[in-house]
């Protein structure tokens, strides 16, 4: 099964504080992850008996393909979540999601403070995720597309902190970009992710 790149709401091209140019360039990277995912899956399917017999943890075809597959898949999944909940009106969530945020973080302001600080501390991503074991929301940190997803936790919000997400607009200044991210979050989409957890 081949993946195809998704198209997102037109509103992602008209955001406050995250330019159309940034979004266009960023989407090219997302599309690249889709292409590479398909390419790696094809290469895995074409492995020969000789390739299988040469499996090795230092270097082997199967190792390189399987490691980079996780990077490509992360690049697809993370960006689909990120662009899927951008282009909104910002503000605060409501309903069950706000209740859960208040329960797990004390208040929306504290939640936001934690996302921002986690984002300043991350080299790649922040995910607000539902931990099915602890039955709570937590802001997890990732240094790359494939580090460190947490087993038993499902993201409902993804914040890209790679420099490509903001360098055109803010240079090396990440904090105003994270602020702009919050200005453009479509909380109704995040709320939908949250409610889908219960199904
Ligand atoms: Fe990105």
Describe the protein in words.
- The chain has 199 residues and is mostly helical.
- The protein has two domains: 19-84; 95-196, minor pseudopilin epsh fold.
- It has helices at 20-45, 49-53, 61-84, 95-105, 108-121, 167-170, 175-183, 187-196; strands at residues 125-131, 136-142, 153-160.
- The chain has a three-stranded antiparallel beta sheet.
- Helix 1 packs antiparallel against helix 3 and helix 5 (108-121) packs across helix 7.
- The longest helix has 26 residues, at 20-45.
- The model has no long low-confidence stretch (mean pLDDT 97).
- Residues 26, 29, 79, 160, 162, 164-165 line the site of fe (ii) ion (FE2).
Condensed summary:
The protein is mainly α and 199 residues long. The chain contains eight helices and three strands, in the order αααααβββααα. Fe (ii) ion (FE2) binds next to α1.
């Amino acid at each position: 099964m081949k993946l195809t790149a998704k198209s997102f709401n037109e509103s992602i091209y008209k955001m406050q504080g995250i330019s159309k140019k940034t979004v266009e360039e960023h989407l090219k990277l997302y599309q690249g992850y889709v292409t590479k995912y398909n390419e790696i899956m094809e290469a895995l399917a074409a492995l020969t008996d000789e390739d299988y017999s040469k499996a090795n943890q230092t270097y082997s075809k199967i190792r390189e393909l399987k490691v980079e597959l996780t990077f490509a898949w992360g690049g697809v999944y993370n960006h689909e979540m990120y662009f899927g909940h951008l282009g909104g009106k910002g503000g605060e969530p409501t309903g069950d999601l706000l209740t859960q945020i208040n329960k797990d973080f004390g208040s929306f302001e504290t939640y936001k403070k934690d996302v921002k600080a986690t984002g300043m501390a991350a080299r790649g991503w922040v995910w607000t995720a539902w931990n099915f074991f602890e039955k709570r929301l937590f802001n997890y940190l990732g240094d790359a597309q494939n580090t460190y997803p947490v087993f038993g936790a499902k993201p409902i919000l993804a914040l890209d902190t790679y420099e490509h997400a903001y360098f055109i607009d803010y240079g090396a200044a990440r904090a105003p970009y994270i602020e702009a991210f919050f200005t453009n979050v479509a909380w109704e989409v995040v709320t939908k992710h949250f409610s889908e957890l219960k199904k």
